[in-house]
Amino acid sequence: MTLLCWTRAIAYAQRPYSHVSWTPVSPIATLVRTYATKKACANCGTPNATASLQCNKCDTLQPLPPSVDYYDVLGIPWESVPHQGWQVDQSALKAQWRRTMALSHPDRLVHKPDNEQEIGAHQSAILNKAYETLRQPLPRVLYLLERQGIEGIPEGTSMADPSLLMEVMELQEALADAEDEAAVEQVNEANQEHMQDVLTQLDEAFAHTPLDTQRVQALAMQLRYWTNIAKAIREWQPGKRPELQH
């Protein structure tokens, strides 16, 4: 890149009120989007990054756009997470979630204006959604595909592998026929093996650049089946037929 191009790129990234919207597909794209997109504090007018929870000058809580990046808002840079954002450190994620949630805690805002309390409630909802999305494998893989502008599991898509589909159906039937906790535990052990196998394959898929999104979509579909069975296992009750989602 020429010196002129670099100069223009830096000047663009430093603009205080640029409204740029795109899906990052690389660490550089994430870095540019995080720092190039700004919002002005309604209280003092200071420019802040879109994912900022409070003004860096007056500490007033800042409204978050619905499309705010979940990694950014939780203070976990996407480019710092191994395997293209897939291998999230769960202890670090929980610590960051607690830290960010403390900023909008109702006790902290009890003497603040009504509009700032509303912003705090909205922040809490987004932070909780971000945390749950990055905490769980299925929502996380779907979100990572979404960040690249790709629909996670297209509507109406079904599992293409007939042998895997048969295994899913067999586990579903075994759970439906289970009469005691011992039988349910057998189903659970088999299901956990399937889930771990898919998670291992996802680790391998996200380790490669560029990402094979078709493979990840296929694995996400498998994971959805095993996740739904796991949910049915948790909700199992004697004498009650489990509700199995597809």
Task: Give an overview of the whole structure.
The structure is a single chain. Helix 4 (90-103) packs antiparallel against helix 6, helix 7 (137-147) packs antiparallel against helix 10 (213-234) and helix 9 runs antiparallel to helix 10 (213-234). The chain has a two-stranded antiparallel ribbon with strand order 1-2. The protein has helices spanning 3-13, 27-36, 70-73, 90-103, 106-109, 114-135, 137-147, 162-177, 181-206, 213-234; strands spanning 38-40, 47-49. The chain is elongated. Residues 1-36 have low confidence and may be disordered. It is an all-alpha fold. Among the domains are: 38-135, DnaJ domain (Helix Hairpins, Orthogonal Bundle), CATH 1.10.287.110; 162-235, HscB, C-terminal domain (Monooxygenase), CATH 1.20.1280. It is built from ten helices and two strands; from the N terminus they run H-H-E-E-H-H-H-H-H-H-H-H. Helix content is 57%, strand content 2%.
CATH topology-level fold name of the domain at 38-135: Helix Hairpins
Mean pLDDT over all positions? 84
The topology string of helices and strands comes to: HHEEHHHHHHHH
Distance between the termini: 50 Å
Label the structural class.
mainly alpha
Oligomer: single chain
CATH superfamily of the domain at 38-135: DnaJ domain
Shape: elongated
